[in-house]
Amino acid sequence: MTRMQTLDDDQIRPGSRVTMHYTVRLEDGMVADTSREGEPLTFTLGDGSVVPGLELALYGLRAGDTQTLAIAPQDAFGFRDPDNVHTLPRSEFPADMELKEGLIVEFATPSGETTPGAVRRVGKDEVEVDFNHPLAGHEITFEVEILSVAPPAADGEG
User: Fold this and answer.
1) How does pLDDT run across 122-143, given as a tens digit for each residue?
2) Strand partners, 106
3) CATH, residue 73
4) Are 71 and 25 in contact (CB under 8 A)?
5) Distance from C-alpha of 73 to C-alpha of 52, rounded to nearest angstrom
6) Total domains, the chain
């Protein structure tokens, strides 16, 4: 017989409002991102604010809990896609823009949104830009400290 476990209001579950501090580390231990020096992250579990692998690992945690977990690329920021690297004419950039390898440039998409791209190579007439997420292809380690958990809003509230 299978026993179904129910989560208390103070445990993270779909729709919970979670406030937490986090640190993201790469395979070599380098810190890629952290909230420790600033404001904690507040989000609703299931709203797409955090990568799927982290969401799954947060289920059942409570305020005061800490967790360290490794997340594979497919559950974090995906794998690098060679089709997301584009060669653009130098003329598409402002003439006074100092282009150099590693520079992050914001580009407008056809839908009017913006997306960042990292300059990989600068030639006389062309610029190679990588539109992959900077953490794509990396296994990352998330360290989280849950500061508060609010239960999901009841239907009809809000």
Assistant:
1) 999 999 999 998 889 999 999 9
2) 116
3) 3.10.50.40
4) no
5) 11
6) 2
Distance of CA 12 to the CA centre of its chain: 19
Under 8 Å between Cβ of 58 and 144: yes
Q: Is the per-residue pLDDT at 158 higher than 50?
A: no
Q: Tell me how many degrees the CA angle 34-52-103 measures, rounded to the nearest 5.
A: 50
d(CA 12, CA 136): 27
Number of Cβ atoms within 10 Å of the Cβ of 21 = 18
Tell me the per-residue pLDDT of 15-62, one tens digit each, with 9 for 90 and over. 999 999 999 999 999 998 999 999 999 999 999 888 888 888 899 999
- 113 burial (CB, 10 Å; 0-12 / 13-18 / 19+) is exposed
Q: What is the CATH number of the domain that holds 99?
A: 2.40.10.330
